[in-house]
Amino acid sequence: MNAIVSWLLVMTSVILVDSVRVDSSLFFKKKGCDPRCTVTQSNFTGNLNFPSECQTVCADIYIDETCDLSEVQLTSLFKNMKHLIGSLVVNGTKLTSGKFLAGLETIVTDHYDIVWANNTEMVELGLSNLSVIDCRRLEISQNSKMTDLSLLNLQTALSSSNTASYVWLEVYKLSANFCMPFDQMEVFLAIQNLNLAYVKANYCPTKSDSTRIYGDVIIDSNSNFDSMKSVETIFGSLIINGTDLENLDFLKNLKYIAPLGSTDDENEIKSFNSLHKIYRASINGHSCEAIEYKEKMRIKEWKAVVVKDFSFIVIGISVVVMVLLTCIVFWLKKYRTVRPVKSSSINL
Ligand SMILES: *[C@@H]1O[C@H](CO)[C@@H](O)[C@H](O)[C@H]1NC(C)=O
Ligand SMILES: *[C@@H]1O[C@H](CO)[C@@H](O)[C@H](O)[C@H]1NC(C)=O
Ligand SMILES: *[C@@H]1O[C@H](CO)[C@@H](O)[C@H](O)[C@H]1NC(C)=O
Ligand SMILES: *[C@@H]1O[C@H](CO)[C@@H](O)[C@H](O)[C@H]1NC(C)=O
Ligand SMILES: *[C@@H]1O[C@H](CO)[C@@H](O)[C@H](O)[C@H]1NC(C)=O
Questions:
Q1: Is residue 330 scored above 90 in pLDDT?
Q2: Which of 106, 190, 246, 317 sits at a 20 to 30 Å CA gap from 70?
Q3: pTM surpassing 0.70?
Q4: Which CATH number is 105's domain given?
Q5: Residue 41 belongs to some domain of the structure
Q6: Which of 209, 154, 148 is nearest to 179 (CA)?
Q7: Sorted alphabetically, which Pfam families does this protein's record hold (predicted)?
Q8: Which residue's alpha carbon is nearest to atom 7 within ligand 1?
Q9: pLDDT tens digits, residue range 123-136?
Q10: Which residues line ligand 3 (CB under 6 A)?
Q11: pLDDT, tens only, 78-88
């Protein structure tokens, strides 16, 4: 429920922001950008003076089919850039690799997105050193030849724009041969506020071992509970059905339950079907149901608070009304009793 609300907020702000592409100069000022390392023009094409000597660059980098630089030229242009303050869009190019930004470590875009889409020749993303993103969304989509994501250094996802508590990771419509390695998924799962509901891919088929299980796990009364004790990640879903378990201690090492399922169906991408499918199960003796339950409790508590606030308002209004009524009654009484006295005194 919360996820849906924040998704709606994000989408609303996407619409708002995209329709009003504000000048970034205020943002750059706020971030204390060095004027020598700042590119103020609102989009990026090849023929501008890029401050290639800077490690921290303030710019909105927009690379599309109109960019006439080769990959070699782009690599040399960005060779020193480790930190980007501004937005990054690589959209609809014929570039074959994103390695020209391999040195990039942090991207801080405020309320914009990082988009890497429609690059039909691109085989690898190449952002191998990227470790911090501060944005609303990181979208990697419709790169129909991309088989290599390799965002293995990603550690932090922030959403400083206060409309959303999540950073949405959207990965869809990559090469038909793309698959999600377990290591990569664990990198994503470890980042608390990265929302993975829009990751559309299948896992690379890999044998299960004692800590990682690939596939759905169904636990019933016939299951071997001991074999589950060392499991840390289930790359699939977990169903506990028809047991007379009293506790879930046999899942004490379970950290993540992360089912993925590819779909190129636009409708499913747009619908909320997959929301809440991925649990970061910090189990510690609690089951996923417990986590879902907690989530439900949180919503319940939130509702209770609202109701409590509401009842305070009702009580407050009643008190005010009562005080007012009392005053009116007193005033009326006084008016009624004083007036005859007054009139009688006049008469006297
Ligand atoms: C980028 O700027 C150029 C001129 O400065 C303009 O012609 C072009 O339409 C802009 N592109 C985008 C995507 O904003
Ligand atoms: C990418 O390009 C397509 C058309 O080529 C355009 O419709 C889309 O809005 C662009 N996306 C971004 C994020 O600029
Ligand atoms: C990526 O980071 C590593 C380790 O800090 C560094 O050795 C390497 O040069 C960086 N890559 C690029 C392309 O800058
Ligand atoms: C990719 O291109 C299509 C068609 O040109 C466009 O509708 C879509 O918005 C683009 N995707 C992104 C993320 O810009
Ligand atoms: C639970 O087990 C019952 C009977 O064994 C079965 O009918 C039902 O489909 C199972 N539910 C799930 C979610 O697997």
A1: no
A2: 106
A3: yes
A4: 3.80.20
A5: yes
A6: 148
A7: Recep_L_domain
A8: 43
A9: 999 999 999 999 98
A10: 102-103, 129
A11: 999 999 999 89
Which residue segment(s) compose the domain that 136 sits in? 12-175
* Rounded Cα gap, residues 219 and 238, in angstroms: 8
**pLDDT attached to residue 198:** 83
What residues have CB less than 8 Å from 205, skipping those under 6 apart?
A: 179, 214
What does the alpha-carbon distance between residue 20 and residue 11 come to, in Å, rounded to a whole number? 14
Count of other CB atoms within 10 angstroms of residue 4? 12
324 lines ligand 5 (CB under 6 A): no
Of 272 and 41, the one with more pLDDT:
41
Between CA 280 and CA 234 the distance in angstroms is 11
In a domain, residue 96? The reply is yes
What SS3 class is residue 171? strand
E strand map for 142-255: 156-158, 167-172, 194-199, 212-214, 217-219, 233-235, 238-240
Best probe residue, ligand 2, of 63, 67, 91, 109 (max atoms within 8 Å of C-beta)? 91
Which tokens hold the place of 25? 């100069």
Sign of the C-alpha dihedral, residues 321, 322, 327, 328? positive
Round to the nearest angstrom and report the end-to-end CA distance of the chain: 77
Number of domains in the chain: 1
Token readout for 57 is: 């660059």
- DSSP strand E in the chain: where? 56-58, 61-63, 83-85, 88-91, 106-108, 114-117, 132-134, 137-141, 156-158, 167-172, 194-199, 212-214, 217-219, 233-235, 238-240, 256-257
Separation between Cα atoms, residue 133 and residue 130, nearest integer Å: 8
Cα 217 to Cα 130: distance, rounded to the nearest angstrom:
34
